[in-house]
């Protein structure tokens, strides 16, 4: 019975993964972005989960893969005979080499030094990007077209989705398998106690370099997949934003589980897709969510489900309600501030002789100086915080 | 000659500015083991607060209040956030400050918009200090340098000759022992974090009037400050000073040089071959100014991983 249930569950999961193939381009695009982000974050987390190395410059390896694939696609356009499905592999290989070189330098040190060095390497590449016209295409970047191969024309994204799905499966398979290999186990030991491992005779630097290169290669695979999807790339892919994304997604999702980063990446890419159309404050909310998770949920979302601590459904529901209350109030206050500080509102005020004219938000006409507009959300938010606080206090004493 | 002189002074001033920001960072790291990613964001906050307060009170009072406010923000971060995640380890603290840097960046964009604000040098300092061979040297640069030097002297005297400095230095190396001797180490940490934040805020308030005050100033400076700290050796004030000056001088001195690798190969007769290849061979040194600090850092790491003044790793 249990077995049948499991098989059914897997079948549902498989169908879900294939579903974007039959939906329109927009959903295929979203699904592709989610899977690429998930693979990228998981590749980043290979370093952290096992060896406790926190990289702030993984955008370099993602970008290297992306550039390699777009260059390859240009070569295919010019007549090179390589099936498109193998292109991401080239991205992975290029990133592997780049990762070996930079990884050798970065892993000379551990801890905070490692983080700073990876960050500086990313800055180095980012600052070189616009200078090296031939390789990175300057400010405009380089672009290409997907050529038909293997009987598919790849004109629509749902055909591309199949390639992405395939390679993401391979990537996750490698990550899952690597943790079980002897080298993967040594990498775990490296995270626990590097000095002891060195005393035992292991060449820890070599292990770190290999681990770094593998992580870079999988990031390059993810970048290559994005290269195929987007068909163009410029040097901004090396910028701070693309290095920060896997960090944020990983720790919100839960860094100590294999699939935690994938969860975080999927959620944040999905929310980002919805919210960045509606509000320009999406990055602010993402930052606040990240800090709150670091402060109050050190295991991330996945970790908080897997602590083994029994939480009653009632408590969980009340807590969710409290979080909902405070986020609604936070969003209301931030969006109000965004409207009131915008240039458009300033010029409206100037038109009315400097009076605090009403502003429109969520289909409501609101008076900026009314105590109700600020007091009510503040009160609701405080109730939410107090509820959550009370619950965590009672959880500690119990 | 004039070029060399003005570049030297410019480089020195930029180096001193770098030192003002990196001093707090390296102190906080040496003492608490916390790599504060939000440090350059506090520098940016100092600049914006200096601008905002300055609109109400004028430039000089703002120069006092902006760093104070930033120091208070720093104290809040230490007391209510860092201390909370401390038991989860240094990586969690680093992540927290990383997240705070993201939030500060977005909040600044929310309040001041995505473009630089007009934070101007006050009239009494907007003059030329001296001219040499037709090149005018702004007085304000000297002012930035003077603020940095006096800050360094104050910090040095405070650390070397007062009881507070003694406790701080002791807590730097042996926090448990200092605590056992009855000192409130938590308070010392709070103090150091607030002072470090305040210094960054002061640097921002002073420099923001001269350099552009925009939402990217934290990112632009932040990574260079990390370079300074790594090159100097984490936790070492002297190392930070030397590294700041070296990087400040190098970046300003190379701005005017159009050397290329192809040119460097000229003595062995490979110049034309290298030029025909293009790519990295024809990039001029002047256009690499932004990348230079990172190249230096990689070299230092390869030769001397602990940094100039750091202890052996």
H/E element order of chain A: HHHHHHEHHHHEHHHHHHEEH
The shape of chain B is globular
H/E element sequence of chain B: HHHHEEHHHHHHHHH
Number of helices of chain B: 13
Distance between the termini of chain B: 42 Å
Gyration radius from CA atoms of chain A, angstroms:
24 Å
What's the β-strand tally of chain B? 2
Strand order, sheet with most strands of chain A: 1-2
Record the strand order, biggest sheet of chain B. 1-2
Q: Architecture of chain B, according to CATH?
A: Orthogonal Bundle
Largest sheet of chain B: 2 strands, antiparallel
**Estimated helix fraction of chain B:** over 70%
Indicate the structural class of chain A. Answer: mainly alpha
Structure characteristics:
heterodimer; A: 398 residues; mainly alpha; 2 domains; two-stranded antiparallel ribbon; 73% helix; B: 313 residues; ABC transporter involved in vitamin B12 uptake, BtuC; 2 strands; 3% strand; globular
Provide structural commentary.
The complex is a heterodimer of chains A (398) and B (313). By secondary structure, chain A is an all-alpha fold. Chain A folds into two domains: 17-249, no CATH class; 313-397. Helices cover 73% and strands 3% of the residues of chain A. Chain A has helices at 2-18, 25-51, 59-77, 87-106, 111-128, 133-136, 157-178, 182-192, 194-199, 204-230, 240-253, 260-278, 282-296, 300-305, 313-341, 343-351, 371-397, and strands at residues 142-143, 232-233, 359-361, 364-366. Chain A has a two-stranded antiparallel ribbon with strand order 1-2. In chain A, a hairpin with a 2-residue loop joins strand 3 (359-361) and strand 4. In chain A, helix 2 (25-51) packs across helix 11 (240-253). The longest helix of chain A is centred in the C-terminal third of the chain and has 29 residues, at 313-341. Chain A is globular and about 65 Å long. The two termini of chain A are 37 Å apart. The model of chain A has no long low-confidence stretch (mean pLDDT 84). In chain B, strands 1-2 form a two-stranded antiparallel sheet. Chain B starts with a helix and ends in a 10-residue tail after the last helix. Chains A and B meet through helix 5, helix 11, helix 13 and helix 15 of A and helix 3, helix 4, helix 9 and helix 13 of B.
